[in-house]
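Researcher: Next entry in the queue.
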Amino acid sequence: MQKILLIATFLCFTCVAKASNDKELARSYLLWVWNKSLPDFLVSQLPAEKALVEKKFKKAMDNIQKSGIILGAAVVTDVYSIDVLGTNKRVLLVIYKTTDGAQWDDVVLYLEKGKSLILDIGDVENSFTKNSKTVGRNYSNKDMLPILFDKNAVTAPMVMNETKLLIRLANNSKIDSFCRKVLYTGIDTLNRKSGMAPCNPAIPKDKIYCNAVMDDLGGYITDPNDIEVRYLKSEEKRISLKIKCNRTKNEKELVFSIVKGKLLLKRIY
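Model: Structure for this entry, 269 residues:
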């Protein structure tokens, strides 16, 4: 049977591996499903979320009955915590090994940060089914797992792609396109509110402001594909990404606001 190759390659900076408390939660979850018992105090008490978790937990139990997988002696080998950027949520991907030596990555939990309350269970259709065709899929795409629970979730690859695009636009003085990706922070008007919409290149004041912002980025990072991530910080509706250009050694911090599921550049340091 195909096994997951857990090779130590580049790990996304939003993923934290092998946290001891997460491993304990993962072990407990496997035993809960195996023993057909879900502790109420570790599940969200919001009616809709609780009902969803209970429904998916039952599906997981049903899968065990059909596949015959033995979880009683299963061993959790790795866990990966992936932040849902700009929120207080995170995804926990569990890698576990069964007694026959096969490794599986079909346990995906949606948690509240800090409390580790289970809000949802992802990929439950495949969990504990012993479906070798899906082995490695969640691990290979772990950075994108938040989208399983929220189609508008902001992920680390999205932040990186947006950053690289902004660098290209700034380096090539594409002011109109750049302007549409900058957060409007001017005075509230009847048509738009500060911090709630992108700038408009057709408005002279917006264009002047965006030109100044673009000047803080253009030319400092010569190649958007040759950068080093210094850190990525996430707060409610806000993301800060600091990068270093490997060629010029310049460092820049880009601060984004999340508006209606989209990233808009708020400022550059």
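Model: Confidence is low (pLDDT under 50) at residues 1-14.
Researcher: Noted, moving on.
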